[in-house]
Amino acid sequence: MANIEILDMGEADIHFIPPDEFRKFVRDKKNRAFEDKLMDEKEAVKKFVKDGDYLAYDFSSLTRGPQSLIREIIRQRKKNLWILAKFTLLESVLLAGAGCVDKIDVGFLGFGPYIAKKVQEGAVKVYDWSNGSVTYRLVAGAMGIPFIPARDLLGTDTLKHSGAIVVKDPFSGKPVALMPALNPDVSVIHVQEADVYGNARVYGPTVATLETAMASKRVIISAERIVETIEFREHPNWTTIPYYCVDAVVHAPFGAYPGGTQGYYEMDSEHYLKLTSIRTDEEMQKYLEEYIYSVESHDEFLEKKVGVKRLRELIQKSQILEGYR
Known about the structure:
325 residues, alpha/beta, Glutaconate Coenzyme A-transferase, eight-stranded mixed beta sheet, four-stranded antiparallel beta sheet, 12 strands, globular, transferase, CoA-transferase activity, CoA_trans_fam_I, Acyl CoA:acetate/3-ketoacid CoA transferase, alpha subunit
């Protein structure tokens, strides 16, 4: 077969770990033991999130996003992160505002004037992808293959600012985009239920939750409920993430706040609007000080900054409860 012809290629830097190197890490350094991994968010982030890491998170700021873990990353003032902004809104804005992030692979960056200003000023460097293409990259990372072919990004300006390569498909002769595999250093994922070993269940809509966990070197799970392992054994097909992918389990009721979690509580739209209205560094630093730096933990944040009354209202607003538990 003739050499594959390269037709076009993007200009972006890529975070790429050769599949054999990732496989060696999992084999030699990943703790796959069936042991109690329950800890608080402070210990989990201190132990498993390092300065300079590539960080991925799942799912959305509006729904089941890992907000308590993101706040802890900011509280510990992690630096020089390269993050994957996939189906997210608030996380990238807060991490950029706190000076935690240098680079962002963008599926969906977020909105509001603040993050746009940070990008224009060069405070953070962004690389264009799409929610679909970064998901393909995680799938390739989970499968242990170096890249995955797709038709996503073809014919767009986005491709020019991505790290994808367009080649002539040797079978059809048509253009196809090759997406490099993505293996994050660490991922943070909020779920409805987990046991202390890391088995986890996700109910409702999701995108590549399992693939994100499988592709990552280290995985921190936060859960609305910690349940007995017997529940996973009774219904093993309901398990979204198996324990051997997970390094830490954090019990975090309302862990997605100000977003919602299906079957538990609704999004706090008033707090959400407060965040999206931030325009200046002064306003951002005031928000960070009031809601993140001035409290020691997620529990203290809920108690002092949100309150039981508001949390009860969000539970009552969640109209769809049946079918999620």
